[in-house]
């Protein structure tokens, strides 16, 4: 009379109701499958990190007395897909029922529903108990509005969960948002905290992944692997963030620096997305740091906004737009990714650094993703679908529900402005102000035209010239179009020519 419960690789939540007590008739199933390693080309560290965490979770369950069936990637019994494996496991265990937790990705959600209808036993979906908002909460809140303001959703979430509020339900500090205090460049002080992540030798696991024929890219860094695999490691990372980085998180949230790849960011997205941590406990830990005077309200609010605001909001966008969101292409951009997205070899120092860091570590912080790599992709008119697949593969925390709206909506404006109120693009001036990327670059950030001019400059103005019809009425772009109107026809022609030249030689930039 065995009951099967499927645990997906991003559902490693030891506090889930399933695990409250040991039930001898329940077998927990975890499986490493080619279906998941192959739906996009992943960074090597991403595959290692998921499998290491899944294995650690299976060990944790078994040690706690639960029955576990774990299929490794190279196990000859493994049929390498959820459906094919579940079909034989049902027979093998003479199972009477199957349960699964709500998947976060549309493709798995659909697959499980279809599968449930075809199995010879009853199958039932249960909540993953991870998120602070329902899948449809954003759609309910915004109804048919054409623009979904994150700020509206965020305030709703703060009220609903009683975060950073006074006794009368007003925001602490009498402001909901300290965004204006979150925009300082970093000039070397305070020092970036040392990397708090564990160090593990994952060479055996990496060898197993390779022997199974899984294709990956990026540096595996298996001999000195830095991503947490257990809840204890994730909690230690949270604690290190709260004490060492959170006090400086706010002001330097948008800064970039070649000597400080992490700055004051938390590196918590991976353990959070695989559910080793719960968003509520992270937000509560940050709030507590403020109440105890260990971090300013500007830092704590800025951080809480990311966790209970942006993260839950993009999930709402994802579920309201799937299926079909992967196809959006508002500007009809079609250019393929230049090959240096896979090597980091470009003369543009900002991109060489942000891409190089991503390939080396499977991590880049938000502003590197948005204002360096995404900025270039949008200005250069790269195909949004290809950009999305690159982001989905390269980052350690990339699961589709959070990556897709960030890439297609926030970064590429490919949904026409549902999520972002204006395209996040900039010329070199912003990059120069927010970091040290331009120091020693082969291109000159201050010039627009000529061989040494930074490509971001002509591409920036060319972007607005090309898309004037679509964007001209956007109130948030008033200054941009005012400046464009001040350019002579000759200046515009020169910018267009310069930008066209850069795009023709994109491989050599
Ligand atoms: P911190 O700066 O310390 O922020 C704290 C936490 O807030 C993060 O761990 C994350 O859980 C959450 N958060 C912050 N910003 C966002 C956001 N815009 N959307 C959702 N959650 C947010 N995040 C992912 O988790 N997975 C992705 O695949 C992903 N892809 C992205 C692609 C693009 C083009 C952009 C612009 C952003 C993407 N983000 C993604 C959001 C954000 O960049 C990362 O969450 C963050 O950089 C992770 O690093 P951190 O944990 O050090 O974050």
Distance separating the two termini:
64 Å
- What radius of gyration results from the CA coordinates? 24 Å
Task: Look at the structure and give the mean pLDDT.
Answer: 97
Order of helices and strands: EEHEHEHEHEHHHEHHHHHHHHHHHHH
Oligomer: single chain
Uncertain runs with pLDDT below 50, 5 residues or more? none
Within the largest sheet, what's the order of strands? 4-2-1-5-6
Tell me what the structure shows.
- With 509 residues, the chain is an alpha/beta fold.
- It has 20 helices and seven strands.
- It has a five-stranded parallel sheet, sandwiched between helices.
- Strand 5 (95-101), helix 4 (106-118) and strand 6 form a beta-alpha-beta unit.
- 46% of the residues are buried.
- The mean pLDDT is 97.
Please write out the topology.
Elements: E1 2-6, E2 26-31, H1 34-38, E3 42-43, H2 44-63, E4 67-71, H3 82-92, E5 95-101, H4 106-118, E6 123-126, H5 137-142, H6 150-161, H7 203-211, E7 216-217, H8 231-249, H9 269-273, H10 279-291, H11 297-321, H12 349-361, H13 366-379, H14 384-394, H15 400-411, H16 428-434, H17 455-466, H18 468-471, H19 478-486, H20 489-504
Parallel strand pairs: 1-2, 1-5, 2-4, 3-7, 5-6
Helix pairs in contact: 6-11, 8-10, 8-11, 10-11, 11-15, 12-13, 14-15, 17-20
The chain binds flavin-adenine dinucleotide.
Flavin-adenine dinucleotide (FAD) binds next to helix 9, helix 11, helix 13 and helix 15.
């Amino acid at each position: 009379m065995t009951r099967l419960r499927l645990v997906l690789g991003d559902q490693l939540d030891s506090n889930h109701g399933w695990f409250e007590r040991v039930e001898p008739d329940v077998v927990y199933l975890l499986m490493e499958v080619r279906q998941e390693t192959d739906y996009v080309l992943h960074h090597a560290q991403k595959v290692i990190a998921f499998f290491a965490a899944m294995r650690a979770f299976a060990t944790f369950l078994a040690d706690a007395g639960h029955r576990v069936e774990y299929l490794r990637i190279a196990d000859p019994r493994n049929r390498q897909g959820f459906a094919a494996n579940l079909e034989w496991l049902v027979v093998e265990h003479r199972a009477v029922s199957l349960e699964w937790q709500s998947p976060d990705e549309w493709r798995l959600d659909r697959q499980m529903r279809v599968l449930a209808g075809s199995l010879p036993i009853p199958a039932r979906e249960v909540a993953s108990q991870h998120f602070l908002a329902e899948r449809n909460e954003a759609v309910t809140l915004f109804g048919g509005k054409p623009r979904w303001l994150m700020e509206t959703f965020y305030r709703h979430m703060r009220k609903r969960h009683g975060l950073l509020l006074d006794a009368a339900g007003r925001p602490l500090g009498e402001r909901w948002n300290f965004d204006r205090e979150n925009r300082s460049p970093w000039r070397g002080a305070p020092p970036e905290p040392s990397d708090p992540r564990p160090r593990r030798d994952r060479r055996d696991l990496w060898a197993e992944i390779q022997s199974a024929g899984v294709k990956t890219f990026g540096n595996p860094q298996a001999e000195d692997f830095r991503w947490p695999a257990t809840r204890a490691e994730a909690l230690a990372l949270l604690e290190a963030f709260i004490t060492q980085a959170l006090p400086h998180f706010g002001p330097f949230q948008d800064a970039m620096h070649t000597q400080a790849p992490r700055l004051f960011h938390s590196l918590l997205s991976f353990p959070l997305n695989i559910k080793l941590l719960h968003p509520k406990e992270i937000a509560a830990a940050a709030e507590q740091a403020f109440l105890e005077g260990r971090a300013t309200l500007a830092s704590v609010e800025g951080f809480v906004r990311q966790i209970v605001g942006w993260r839950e909001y993009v999930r709402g966008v994802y579920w309201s737009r799937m299926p079909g969101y992967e196809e959006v292409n508002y500007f009809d951009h079609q250019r393929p990714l230049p090959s240096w997205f896979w090597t980091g070899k470009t003369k543009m120092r900002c991109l060489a650094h942000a891409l190089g860091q991503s390939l080396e570590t499977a991590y880049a912080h938000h502003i590197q993703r948005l204002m360096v790599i995404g900025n270039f992709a949008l200005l250069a008119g790269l195909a949004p679908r290809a950009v999305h697949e690159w982001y989905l593969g390269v980052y350690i925390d990339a699961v589709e529900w959070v990556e897709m709206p960030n890439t297609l909506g926030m970064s590429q404006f490919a949904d026409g402005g549902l999520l972002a109120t204006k395209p996040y693009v900039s010329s070199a001036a912003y990059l120069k102000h927010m970091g040290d990327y331009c120091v020693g670059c082969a291109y000159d950030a201050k010039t627009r035209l000529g061989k040494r001019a930074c490509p971001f400059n002509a591409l920036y103005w060319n972007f607005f010239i090309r898309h004037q019809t679509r964007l001209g009425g956007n109130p948030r772009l008033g200054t941009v179009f005012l400046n464009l109107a001040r350019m002579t026809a000759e200046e515009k022609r020169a910018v267009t020519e310069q930008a066209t030249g850069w795009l023709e030689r994109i491989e050599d930039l």
